[in-house]
Structures are given as structure tokens and as C-alpha cells.
Write a structure and sequence with these properties.
There is one protein chain. 68% of the residues lie in helices and 0% in strands. With 108 residues, the chain is mainly alpha-helical.
Length: 108
Amino acid sequence: MASSPSHLRALYRSILRELPSRPLSTPSPLQQRIRNSFSTATSTEYNTLRIQEVEQHIQYVKAQRMYATLLERYNPGMGMDEEERVRLTARRVGMDLPPELMVEKKGE
């Protein structure tokens, strides 16, 4: 694979897309380090092995982001407490919790 400056720039942008967004005026130390490693290296320095390694890191980070998205989508009760999960489970099967339980929760 060619290690042209445009390909290195595309890799750099792909990495930055996967990082949490921050204002351009205050880049994170990680962003600064990545920028320094790409700006100081010439295209001849980045051999094929290094480019493949960077591409694998980008694929890994994308997969982790997708995993977190799917986990939130298909397990919506992960961040809920037990009472809320029971109430929503009862609603899912067409039942409501007895009013006594609702009053006790509000009274606590």
C-alpha cells in the first residue's frame, strides 16, 4: 500500500474522527501527540508495517464504538435501577404495577 502524504493524512483524520470531539482551540494531549507523530514523520519513514498497524488500530476503535452503540441499543435497562427495570418489564408484557407500590415509592 502506498504511503503517500494524502494516505497518511487520511489515516490521521480517521484517528481523530474516532476520538471524543474537543474544540480545536484546546486539543487533548493525545491529539497533540498523534499530530506530532504524523507531522514529524515523512512518507518514507512510515513503512508498510507501521501503516498497517495504524489501520488496525483504527478498525479496533471503530469496532469498540460500534460495540458500545449496540450494547446501549439492545440492553436499554443496563443503566436503570432494579425498581425501574421491574416497572418497565411489567409494562412490556401489558401490566402495570399496583398503585400501592407507586405510592410507597413516592413516599420514600
